[in-house]
Task: inverse folding
């Protein structure tokens, strides 16, 4: 159970890194 | 509204606004590296950088700044989760409290790392002293400092021209913590301890009650189930309680930063309604002042840092006007009382002997005004601490705090996060004005173009998606509905309030919702995470984009952003977005409840 919640936290922050990447790509194309 | 109420609200506002200018100027000097503390403690600051392997002169692009923030918060979240799960093995646990359940530990870890401080647990019965201090209090400092760092990075976006970088996250985080939050918290903690807020590592003492309390309760059998007589009725016995266990701990040090850092997570379950967390009228005033102190002062810091203090005052004026309006709504509604009680002949008039009005869920020592004012301050700022139970407010009295959260926590808002949210609304306001007159919008000398508006749209749309989507999900699922104690419109309000709180990083609770369940711990936890980082990231992207632009000199067609006209425009945009997004949902909860309450007196 602990690993599940830690994996969830890590997955969220990884998704946030993707948002950073997406915003930067959007800036480059604007 | 009584004269006493008006005077108390005025006193609060005067002290708050009087403190905003000197503190705001000081914080601006801190970020410029020019304050006295920067000089006195510069050696310690450099030592911290050396210990962390940080080069403070190295500037970061916005993407690096965002990644540093995310990695730092990821480590903090996992550390707080681990600390809760392992607290039984660590010292400073005088009550020998066991490990926190995994779902509650997840919710609490993300809640404190994001400056939300939603609490599904009771502090004194769940968390060891070590967890409270090393986990929760440390995050109170760091989450607040992270919000301030993002704000400073955004301000650099306005002040820099043709630049690729927006500062160094580690420097902004360190300076916010060491030069602003720590000194203020130290002073406030000492004053609060002087007022009687407990600060102790002792086990919980047992004390004899001055007046023993007796009550009747079902007598348990050997199997723990209630004994029943021959007729099947429970056997009742009278129990007299002569002794009480008084929870104590290092509360003063946590309460100071929980108020100053707009965190809100109480040491005790009753938060600042608890007499050992908020014992006197002075402690109540100071704690209430601390909620809005830094968010208000940061507006002046913003003005100083962009080189035009009128810009900061304009934003502060917009925040204050909305705040005061909603304070008046809540205090008036609570003072009006409940017509159902009036119909029963209950005296709800204010007098020398009673506060009058709706006193359910409020401390008699705080009365209507200090309960209503606190409720508005704590929901205007994303603080979330309480000194009264919002669930017991009248429907309209409870609607105002809920709507303050739903406005996006930009009316003062969290330290740093509130102002960067309001600046995003300012960008939308100049964009709307630009559409009206057919000019490219500008704000503080920077052209606002499509990329900035796309990022602003993310900032404005993510919280409503989390709030309304989360509420709908909870009400459609059995796991969500089963935790609602009250039926009908009030139960709907309880769920809407919970997701409004989590989806805007506030942390206060309406009560009446059994939220410490796997469903709510998980769903609210995810809403908390998204509403923090998926707003901070686009804000940093705006900072990076603006920093790279050249500065455009103001021309005759430039909309001045320090005038009363702009203040009205900004308020209009904030209220319009908030009203259009949330009035349908509010109509199903507090508005229906208000109409039901008023119908009681109808023939």
Result:
């Amino acid at each position: 159970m602990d690993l599940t919640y830690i994996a969830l936290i890590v997955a969220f922050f990884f998704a946030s890194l993707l948002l950073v990447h997406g915003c930067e790509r959007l800036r480059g194309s604007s | 509204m009584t004269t006493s109420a008006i005077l108390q609200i005025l006193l609060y506002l005067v002290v708050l606004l009087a403190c905003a200018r000197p503190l705001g100027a000081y914080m601006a000097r801190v970020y410029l590296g020019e304050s006295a503390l920067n000089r006195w403690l510069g050696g310690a600051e450099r030592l911290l950088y050396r210990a962390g392997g940080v080069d403070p002169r190295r500037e970061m692009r916005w993407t690096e700044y965002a990644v540093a923030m995310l990695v730092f918060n990821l480590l903090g979240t996992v550390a707080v989760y681990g600390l809760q799960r392992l607290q039984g093995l660590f010292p400073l646990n005088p009550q020998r409290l066991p490990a926190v359940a995994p779902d509650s530990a997840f919710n609490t870890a993300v809640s404190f790392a994001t400056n939300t401080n939603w609490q599904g647990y009771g502090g004194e019965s769940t968390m060891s002293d070590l967890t409270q201090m090393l986990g929760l209090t440390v995050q109170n400092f760091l989450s607040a400092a992270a919000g301030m760092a993002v704000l400073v990075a955004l301000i650099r976006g306005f002040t820099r021209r043709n630049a690729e970088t927006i500062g160094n996250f580690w420097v902004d985080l360190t300076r916010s913590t060491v030069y602003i939050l720590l000194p203020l918290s130290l002073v406030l903690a000492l004053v609060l301890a002087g007022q009687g807020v407990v600060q102790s590592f002792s086990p919980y003492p047992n004390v004899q009650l001055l007046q023993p309390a007796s009550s009747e309760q079902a007598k348990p059998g050997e199997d723990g189930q209630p004994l029943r007589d021959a007729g099947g009725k429970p056997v009742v016995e009278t129990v007299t309680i002569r002794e009480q266990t008084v929870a104590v701990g290092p509360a003063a040090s946590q309460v100071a930063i929980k108020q100053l850092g707009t965190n809100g997570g109480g040491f005790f379950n009753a938060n600042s309604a608890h007499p050992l967390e908020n014992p006197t009228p002075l402690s109540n005033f100071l704690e209430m002042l601390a909620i809005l102190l830094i968010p208000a002062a940061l507006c002046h810091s913003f003005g100083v840092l962009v080189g035009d203090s009128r810009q900061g005052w304009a934003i502060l004026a917009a925040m204050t006007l909305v705040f005061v309006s909603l304070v008046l709504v809540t205090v008036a509604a609570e003072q009006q009382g409940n017509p159902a009680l009036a119909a029963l002949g209950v005296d709800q008039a204010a007098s020398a002997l009673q506060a009058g009005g709706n006193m359910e869920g409020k401390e008699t020592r705080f009365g209507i005004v200090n309960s209503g004012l606190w409720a508005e301050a704590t929901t205007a700022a994303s603080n979330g601490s309480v000194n009264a139970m919002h669930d017991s407010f009248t429907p309209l009295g409870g609607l105002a705090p809920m709507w303050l959260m739903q406005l996006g926590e930009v009316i003062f808002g969290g330290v740093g996060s509130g102002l960067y949210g309001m600046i995003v609304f300012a960008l939308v306001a100049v964009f709307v004005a630009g559409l009206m007159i057919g000019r490219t919008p500008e704000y503080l000398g920077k052209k606002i173009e499509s990329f900035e508006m796309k990022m602003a749209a993310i900032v404005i749309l993510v919280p409503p998606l989390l709030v309304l989507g989360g509420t709908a999900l909870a009400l459609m699922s059995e796991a969500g509905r089963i935790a609602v104690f009250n039926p009908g419109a009030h139960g709907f309000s309880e769920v809407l309030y919970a997701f409004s709180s989590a989806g805007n990083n506030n942390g206060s609770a309406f009560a009446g919702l059994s939220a410490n369940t796997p469903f709510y711990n998980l769903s609210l936890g995810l809403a908390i995470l998204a509403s923090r980082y998926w707003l901070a990231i686009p804000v940093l992207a705006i900072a990076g984009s603006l920093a790279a632009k050249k500065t455009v000199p103001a021309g005759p067609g430039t909309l001045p952003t320090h005038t009363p006209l702009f203040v009205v425009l900004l308020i209009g945009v904030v209220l319009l977005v908030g009203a259009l997004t949330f009035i349908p949902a509010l109509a199903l909860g507090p508005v229906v409840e208000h109409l039901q309450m008023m119908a009681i007196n109808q023939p």
In short: The radius of gyration of chain B is 25 Å.
